[in-house]
Amino acid sequence: MTIKIVTDSTCDLSPEVTQELGITVVPAYLRFGEKVYRDGVDIDHDEFYRKLVESPIHPATSQPAPADFTNVYQKLSGEAEAIVSIQVASKLSGVYDSALQGRALAESRCPIEVIDSLSVSVGLGLIVMAAARLAKAGENLQRIIEETRQIIPQMNVLALFDTLKYLYRGGRIGKAKAFLGALLNVKPLLTLRDGEFVPAGQVRTRAKGVERLFNTVKNTPDIEEVAIVHSTTPDEANSLKERIASIFDRTRIYLARLGPALGVHGGPGALALAIRKKISSIGQDTSEGE
Predict the structure, then answer these.
(1) Looking at the domain assignment, is residue 290 inside a domain?
(2) Predicted confidence (pLDDT) per residue in 60-75, tens digit
């Protein structure tokens, strides 16, 4: 049975990974003034972060249109027996609603399941990768849906921001909080809870923030996979990977770069990780100790 996996560009998966696993990515949109770009298609990461810092215009983002999903679903339905579409958390973006509307408009010859991942960036990416591996292994639609839904609550995402400025500009926090953060020179940490970002504390220095990320992995039992994502600090991300590899299997640690759609809010210096815990129901042994 051929099952096709669809997601959106906030998953921050590399083209190499999506091609290897047969994942179709529907891009979000990015606007600098009158110029509109497709996330991950029309503008590369270096150009985006350069414009983010240098341009007097702060970019805006928008979700893919329902028609974007309709076109993808209709194209894939000609070669698939079913489609599983896994999107960024609906509380963070309208992408999920666009996917639902796109499904309603599609003249598909196969069933389409749209799933709210309750996650974002590499958290979404790890969920999508797991579903794609199941599809590639020939699992049926019901099993892929069930196991994907079991994986979702096992995800943990923790993000470190170098500044609150871009979160404020993107409308994710209020002006007073952004001003206080700048005044105190703190580095905020956010985590996901039920598909929404909530505060996870703050640290005085960047080094302490990175240490917090490392200790989160160190103190989490029964880990299946870890993903690290950065916006502009590849050396720091690689160093964190090496530290994690000293306590965890490096073949299951993935590095990614924060794409434009999310980089608008994270800004330069954003660093985050996603942890997927093991689930016994998908054939993983969770009886091993920490």
Answers:
(1) no
(2) 999 999 999 999 999 9
CATH number of the domain within which 22 lies: 3.40.50.10170
Q: Which helix (H) or strand (E) holds 123?
A: helix 122-136
Structural domain harbouring 191: 154-282
Scan for tokens 């690290």, then name that residue: 228
d(CA 267, CA 283): 39
For residues 37 and 66, the answer to whether their CB atoms sit within 8 Å is no
Distance CA(159)–CA(286), nearest Å, equals 26
CA distance 177 to 164: 8
Q: State the pLDDT at residue 280.
A: 64
Is 81 part of a structural domain of the chain?
Answer: yes
Residues 194, 131, single domain; the answer is no
**73 contacts 106 by C-beta, under 8 angstroms:** yes
What the block records as the tokens of 83 is 């489609």
Mean of the pLDDT values across residues 29-46? Answer: 93
For the sheet with 271-277, list strands across it.
196-203, 187-193, 155-160, 271-277, 223-230, 253-257
Cα separation, 84 vs 34, whole angstroms = 34
Mark whether 148 and 162 lie in a shared domain: no
C-alpha to C-alpha distance for 143 and 77, rounded to whole angstroms: 19
